[in-house]
Write a structure and sequence with these properties.
Layout (H helix, E strand, L loop, with lengths): L7 E6 L4 E7 L5 E6 L5 E6 L4 E5 L5 E3 L13 E6 L5 E6 L3 E6 L5 E6 L5 E6 L6 E5 L4 E2 L1
Antiparallel strand pairs: 1-2, 3-4, 4-5, 5-6, 7-8, 8-9, 9-10, 11-12, 12-13
Length: 142
């Protein structure tokens, strides 16, 4: 059983070694974190099958919603990242799909098959025009 401490995202002040912010909302392990390019937002992917967007200042959170429920034996978002320009969030899922949300609307804009089994990581290309994913089948796809 997880303790409540295991479910908290903490932002540490490195030079002073104290917790500057603590965010609560996930109900299972947090597997991925990424700051927006402007540093004002944080995205998290969790074993609780959610992708959350956090406001760094006040800790306000919202869940990025998918319009079609997933049917997999082990639902899990493993990785979530901001695009280099901050306009999109991409997240990969064990079901082999990468989902992309628009930041302006918060709506799911694209579902892309990653062609791998249990996709575990996703990253935007440096120019922001493409994605690359990695999976348990030891492949990278772009």
């Amino acid at each position: 059983m997880l303790s409540p401490v295991d479910l908290v995202i903490q932002i540490w002040e490195i030079n002073k070694t104290y917790v500057r912010n603590a965010f609560k909302g996930h109900t299972r392990w947090v597997l991925s974190l990424d700051f927006s390019p402007n540093g004002r937002l944080l995205v998290s992917a969790s074993d609780d099958n959610t992708v959350r967007l956090w406001n760094i200042r006040d800790g306000a959170t919202r869940i990025l919603i998918e319009d079609i429920p997933m049917c997999v034996d082990e639902p899990r978002y493993c990785s979530a990242v901001f695009s280099p320009d901050g306009r999109y969030i991409a997240a990969c899922h064990y079901d082999g799909m990468v989902r992309v949300w628009g930041m302006r609307t918060g709506q799911l804009s694209r579902r892309v098959p990653a062609r791998g089994h249990w996709v575990t990581d996703v990253a935007f290309m440096p120019d922001g025009k493409g994605l690359i994913s990695g999976s348990f089948d030891r492949t990278l796809r772009y």
